[in-house]
Design goal:
Layout lengths: L1 H21 L2 H5 L3 E7 L4 H16 L4 E7 L3 E2 H12 L5 E5 L5 E3 L1 H8 L2 E4 L4 E3 L13 E2 L14 H21 L3 H9 L3 E3 H6 L5 E2 L3 H8 L3 E4 L2 E4 L7 E3 L4 H9 L2 H20 L5 H19 L4 H16 L8 H16 L12 H27 L6 H4 L3 E4 L6 E6 L2 E6 L9 E8 L2 E6 L9
Parallel strand pairs: 1-2, 1-13, 2-4, 4-6, 5-7, 6-10, 16-18
Antiparallel strand pairs: 3-8, 7-9, 11-12, 14-15, 14-17, 15-16, 17-18
Length: 455
Amino acid sequence: MKTGRSMLWGVIALLMTATCVAAPRSPMAHPAAVVLRVDGPISPASADYVVRGIEQADSMHATAVVLELDTPGGLSSSMRDVIKAILASPVPVIGYVAPSGARAASAGTYILYACHIAAMAPATNMGAATPVSLTGGGSVPLPASSSGKPAAPGESTEMRKVTNDAVAYIRALAERRGRNADWAEKAVRDAVSVSADEALELHVIDLMAPDIPTLLADVDGRKVETAAGSRVLQTRGASLETITPGARSQFLGVIANPSVAYILLLLGLGGLVMEGMHPGGVLPGVVGAICLLLALYAFQLLPVNFAGLGLIVLGVILIVSEAFVPAYGVLGTGGVVAFVIGSVILMDTGVPGYGIALPVVIGIAIVAAAILVGIVWMAMRSHKRPVVSGREEMIGAIGEVVADFEGRGAVHVHGERWQARSDVPLQRGQAVAVTAMHGLVLDVKPLVVPKEAPP
């Protein structure tokens, strides 16, 4: 009996083992191709999305990653993060400029050169990879703008160093992938661009394809070198798995938006100013501190012109000073002017997608001007009002009894607590009028004398 049970359990174990061994072979016969879509500037958010997407594709044992690009350019630091992830990827990365009408300009050109396979859809273009150096940005943006050749008149030594570094970088990528390195250098030095047909003819890309399924069918069987060694692409008929940006990438995308970072800065400064003017409010100070820290974090990621940032801070200081110094609008007007100029040049990078929207600047400037007008109006109104202070201001003032008392007690007058004397008993919350002042003690009388209770 025991022998029969042992044989039965042995057969079951054998069947389970066979099932476990055979099961993985079916899905691996047609593994998925992961699709990552970058539509917009190459930013810290998009870099985080691509890096994490490649890591996820590796964990899924994907057959390839299709990096679909439609970008005007972006930040050098973010671009290099993406390229490092591609070069270190054990999964082949297929760069694909799509859909028709898309472009891989500036930073997108470098990324396309770094991919194991470079492809473009019809009616697309790439190029214009000249770097631009910004003072105080912390990153070198790569917009679609022209640059002179090295040693051109008026070109700084720093700019020549940046250009030569970019040339060496893109040539290294071209040589690694066996593509046209001379054209890549022209894209950097002369900001040249090419269409998809020209790119294929010049051996800048490997092929053209109208859509992703066709692209995967065309590259099937090609051999590429990855960080894990040689891989033969088996992409024909592969299913597509699109990875969307996660919560972290979406958060970075929100705060790294120049207009959002700009508004966070203003909310931060405004909150701290309100807390300083009204100590103990707590909420304005907490909100202001959080917004200011988020803005500073965003500015660390973005190419910020610190002269513009300084003008914005100066403008806020001058507008606030107008409330304390009777300058009749002079300080406030200067503050609004400094504020507007600083806002315009804060992220004047020339990189598409990295400027503050003009309607946002105009709207904030109108609000600042309205605040200035309100401050000046209140200052002029208070100037026309006769000023009464000291003993004369207290006589006749209306107060409120703090607690029941007979003879001496405490009252609130003008928001302050005073010692008071009364000839009649007073009750808490009862309204009183100040009749005299003896040092720091007020003589008060009730505005309405309470009726005596019946016997």
